[in-house]
Design brief:
Layout lengths: L3 E3 L6 E3 L10 H13 L3 E3 L5 E3 L2 H10 L13 H21 L4 H24 L3 H32 L6 E2 L4 E2 L6 H17 L10 H18 L2 H17 L2 H19 L5 H10 L1 H20 L9 H6 L6 H34 L5 H17 L9 H35 L1
Antiparallel strand pairs: 1-2, 3-4, 5-6
């Protein structure tokens, strides 16, 4: 039996957003949940190549459940195609310039983009109702919080006892989780915290009570211990936006800040405050970031339209630019930057539409997705965030929410049209 909705004004029956025969597409649903759980885990293969464990689930989905992928037209935009075209042109430009196709470009960048698009397709195929969307968010939050508990304990063991673990970097001075990079891990924790806070109100909050408080405190500790200034800034931006939507959130944020300050005082006698000050300032790293920004703009000036080609900046500088927009500008030029801004902006528009037309029960969920997207866009100003899989999970859920609201609205209009026709 397919669930149905009833239009209150016309009395007509409206079909559910997407018809299906069960709570999940069997194999694909399981693999998407597994993909969501494994998102925080990466393994270093070589010096310049990391392996995301979650990608195994996508490859298995292609082998075991290709027929369960569905094309949700409203969830996809012209900007997805634009990304493919831009990367194809960038790869061609790079190959013509260097005379070869580098393994880094083919595996890390081109194949990586294909996997991100495959993940987007898998998530949008599986989410056919608001409960599906909620389920994925719950699994994601619980997975991140569980790993973060172990990671925070590992950081404290490294700080107090000098125990070396895979969860820390820079000689045990920064928390990096299993993402291998402190800035990327900080962004993951910020996104998770924003989801918890943004979806904590309304008639059906995602989490509430002591569990919500525990999640926020432990995630806040993790964000602090990453010593990622980019993550700290990316947390501040959506929290300010949240306060504009929900004034009561300001009280909770102040309370969380007080609790965080109390934790800092607990570590004061151990010299942690001095350690915190040294790690937070790191002036030499700030100066290098400004140098990279200058070099990226100089590279753009040499190739303003199509850029220098995929991986061009990395080859010349020996490092990444640590800014998504400037990286795209240097490697893909104005064409690439236009596609990137269109891609990111389209999800802001879709999230806002979904927030306006979602059922009252689901508005907090959509608001949380909008804030999470805002946080990741802010984070992209400090790191190259385009390949962060948790950002692609969020935009896939935004696309799914947009599809749900569009489909419900179209069904409602059709029902009202039929009712008016019958009256005539």
């Amino acid at each position: 039996m397919i669930p149905a909705l009833r239009d209150r004004r016309s009395g007509s029956v409206i079909s559910a957003p997407f018809a299906r025969t069960g709570p999940w597409p069997d194999i694909l649903g399981f693999l998407v949940v597994s993909y969501t759980v494994l998102l925080p885990y990466q393994l270093q293969v070589t010096h310049d190549i990391n392996f995301a464990v979650a990608d195994c689930c996508l490859l298995l989905a292609l082998l075991l459940a290709p027929g369960q992928f569905k094309y949700r037209k409203t969830a996809w935009t012209i900007w997805h195609l634009g990304l493919i075209v831009v990367f194809a042109i960038g790869t061609l430009v790079s190959a013509l310039d260097s005379g070869e196709l580098s393994r880094y470009n083919l595996l890390n960048k081109d194949a990586g983009l294909c996997l991100l698009l495959l993940g987007y397709a898998a998530v949008t195929s599986v989410v056919t109702s608001w409960e599906d969307l909620r389920r994925i968010l719950r699994v994601f939050v619980l997975g991140v919080v569980s790993q973060n508990l172990v990671a925070v304990a590992a950081f404290l063991a490294a700080y107090f006892f000098g125990v070396d673990t895979p969860f820390t970097s820079y000689g045990g001075q920064r928390l990096s989780g299993m993402l291998l990079d402190a800035n990327a891990y900080g962004g993951l924790l910020v996104l998770t915290l924003i989801i918890c806070e943004g979806a904590s109100w309304g008639p059906a909050p995602l989490f509430k009570g002591y569990s919500l408080l525990f999640f926020k405190l432990t995630l806040g500790m993790g964000i602090l211990f990453t010593f990622s200034r980019s993550a700290w800034i990316s947390l501040a931006v959506p929290l300010i936006v949240l306060c504009l939507f929900r004034r009561a959130a300001a009280v909770r944020i102040v309370f969380a800040g007080v609790m965080g300050g109390a934790y800092l005082l607990l570590f004061a006698r151990s010299g942690f405050l001095g350690f915190f000050e040294r790690m937070a300032i790191r002036p030499e790293q700030g100066e290098s970031r400004f140098t990279l920004v200058r070099d990226a703009l100089a590279e753009f000036a040499r190739h303003p339209v199509l850029g220098g080609g995929l991986g061009n900046f990395l080859i010349k500088e020996g490092t990444i630019v640590h800014n998504t927009s400037l990286w795209v500008l240097a490697d893909f030029g104005l064409v690439g930057l236009g596609v990137l801004l269109g891609y990111v902006g389209s999800f802001f528009a879709m999230a806002w539409h979904a927030y306006r037309f979602a059922p009252d029960r689901e508005k907090p969920i959509v608001l949380a997705l909008l804030l999470a997207h805002t946080a990741m866009f802010a984070l992209s100003m400090g790191i190259e965030a385009l390949y962060q899989r948790h950002w692609w999970l969020i935009v896939a859920l935004i696309g799914s929410a947009y599809s749900l609201t569009r489909c419900t609205a179209e069904n409602g209009e059709a029902a009202r049209f039929r009712a008016a026709t019958y009256r005539i």
